[in-house]
Every structure is written in C-alpha cells, then in structure tokens.
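Posted in: Structural Biology > Protein-Ligand Complexes

Title: Requesting predicted complex, cytidine-5'-triphosphate in pocket

I'd be grateful if someone could produce the 3D structure tokens for the following input. Sequence and ligand are given below.
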Amino acid sequence: MEGRNPLSEQRVLLIVGGGIAAYKALELTRLLRKAGIAVRPILTRAGAQFVTPLSLSALAEDKVYADLFSLTDEAEMGHIELSRSADLVVVAPATADLMAKAANGHADDLASTTLLATDKPVLMAPAMNVRMWEHAATRRNLAALKADGVGFVGPDEGAMACGEFGPGRMAEPAAIFQAILGALATGRPLAGKRALVTAGPTAEPIDPVRVITNRSSGKQGYAIAAALAGLGAEVTLVSGPTALAAPAGVRRVDVETAQQMLEACEAALPVDIAVCVAAVADWRPESVAAAKVKKDGASPKPIALVETPDILATLSKGKRRPKLVVGFAAETNDVEANAKAKLAKKGCDWIVANDVSVAGTMGGEDNAVAIVSAKGVERWDRAPKAEVARRLADRIAKALK
Ligand code: CTP
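-- Reply #1 --
Done. Output follows.
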C-alpha cells in the first residue's frame, strides 16, 4: 500500500459536449491518462459530430458511453451508477446548451441525466461563441451553476473558430488538467494520511464453541473507515466479527479477540489517525477450555474473568502515538460526564459519546453523538451513521490541516 501513486486511484467522468473545442478533450484525456487518472468518457450526440467515439475510447482506454437508452450500456453500468462511479465529473467542452440543461435540471440525454444524478463535484470548461457566452441567459445559468457548487475553468479570451474575438474559447487542456488536479485534491484532504479504525465487537472464547461478545454491529466503525477513505486516507480497518463487507478502498484485517485486535492495531502503526470504535469486550475468560465444557450434572462453574488490554489507552499512551486519537464511549447514563472522565483516563484527544440507552442505536441505522474534547462538548443532531461518519471525517481532516 505504501508508495502508491494516489492519482492512480482517481477517476474522472468526462462529458464531451458538441463544439469545435471537443478536439481539445482528446488532449485532456491524454494528459489525465498519462498522470494515471482513469477517464470514463460520455460523448453527447453533438459531441460525436466533432470527435469520434473511437478516438475518445482509444485515448481513455475505456468504452465511450453515449446513449441513455442503450440496453447494453445500461446492463453494464446503469446511468445512476455511472454518475457516481467517478471522483469528479468534468464537462469539456461545456456548451451553452449543456450549461442550460444542468442549470435547469433537465435530464433528456445521458450527459444531462448524469449531471442531475451525480453526487460528485462537477467542473465545467465552457466553450461557446462570445455572444452566446455574454447572453443574459448564459449569465443566469452560470450564476445558478456556481450557486449549486459547480466549479469553472475558463473560458479564455481570444480568436474563435467562428471568426469573432472575445471570451468563450475553451481553456487549454493543460489548464483544465491543473483545475482537475486542484478539484481532486480539495475532495481528498486526507490524501497521504494513514488511518486506523477499530470496529465491531470482539469475541472472547470460553471453549471451542462458546464466546463472550456483545451486540455491536460494526456499522458506525465501517462507515467511519469508508468516510476517511473517501477523503483520501489510506485506511486499515481492524474488525471483530461482523456481517458487513469491507468498504471500497479500505484494507480490512479480521480479528476475534481483544488481544488480536491490539496486535493488529500495533502492526498497522505508524498512523496519523486512530479511531477506536470497536466495542471491545472488557473481560475474557482467564483460561480457555481445550474441549467443549459439558453439562455433566455438576452445578455451573463460575467463569473466572480477567481484563482485556485497553486498545484505545495503549495507542494513546504508546511511543508511536498517532497525531489524533479518537475514542467512542457507549454510555447508558450520565453520557457527557462519563465521556469526560474517559477522555482523561484513556489519554485520547476526542471522545465521541453516544447514548446507547436510546432504543435502536446499538445495531441500528442512526446515531446521536456528542464530541467531547479538551475544548468542551459539542452535540450533534441525530443522523444516519453514514452522515455521522462523514461529519467526523471532515472534522478529523480539519484538525489535521
Ligand atoms: N476500548 C478499547 N479497548 C478496550 C475497551 C475499550 O480500545 N479493551 C475503546 C473503545 O473502542 C472505545 C473506548 O475505548 O473507543 C471506550 O469504550 P467503552 O467500552 O465505552 O469504555 P470502557 O473503557 O470499557 O469503560 P466502561 O466500560 O467502564 O464504561
């Protein structure tokens, strides 16, 4: 995992509109591929009047998507999935028509539908005749798109293919390429950072068939691992037994016991960030029976328990302490007071306190948390676990800036 080129994991969905500048989209595609960035092209019908699908496909080293109603395309990758399959959507050239459609939420072909369906940042490189660019309608559309968060590069001023002079010429491929690198980096504030996340329960064996465990589903920890990876971090997820699939781009290490979890965490060091979400069993049977314990008529024997290692405290107080250590506190009462005490006891930077007495939190989809740090307590509204994870990952990225 180390030493990899972070650009090689970046994906751009490139919408090529219909304008004479479409030929520059070929050079842009070449620059992106040379930098290791994957390019998936969408060619509009008008765009195909200027460049051929074959040229675009050859340079992108991917197939060209063109038709919203193509059964073969839809079977391979539906348009909604297509719209989310990239880290960034780039429209180059962005014609007056494509800008108008995007500004008004039209969805009558693959390009406009993709722009309406995407949840990814969008960067447009406008290209049109100077009068079209300066028309009040285009001004309105530009303002609306900017208000929607769309980024723009260009247009440049200069001689145009139509013989006129002024702003409207598409930015040069090198400039669009730089803008793409900037947009990709903004979306990845944790690129180059390493993160460790513990998640799920642990299972402490009593005998070969029985364990002591708890009701943790791992959902919150997995969502945090996914959110950190989404911001560009290189994430190791040390997970106890759960029914969940590893989030994309996350390295998962499966463990069962607290001791194994600690060892896997230590093996993942050094890291910049550690988030301990796992519901680690606090005790384990002192000894594990070699064979299944039988109900042999005798009264049940008490199981002697010993404490498991505290992973959060060990990481917080260790020689290779991550820059930022975040713990969770599952409490049923006096949530914030207990969290404050835990912050001091464990030596971590933040405690994310959640009230598990609220029905449906443990194993459920939502979480209401408070972030407790030396600076005080900040309460967050109840939200889906994935949303809590995204907010926490954003907060972590800000803290590491
Ligand atoms: N934790 C850990 N290793 C343990 C126990 C807990 O890393 N052996 C971590 C959890 O992942 C969590 C935090 O410590 O981030 C707090 O866990 P919690 O169970 O609430 O705290 P405990 O230390 O077990 O305290 P208590 O059960 O007494 O409230």
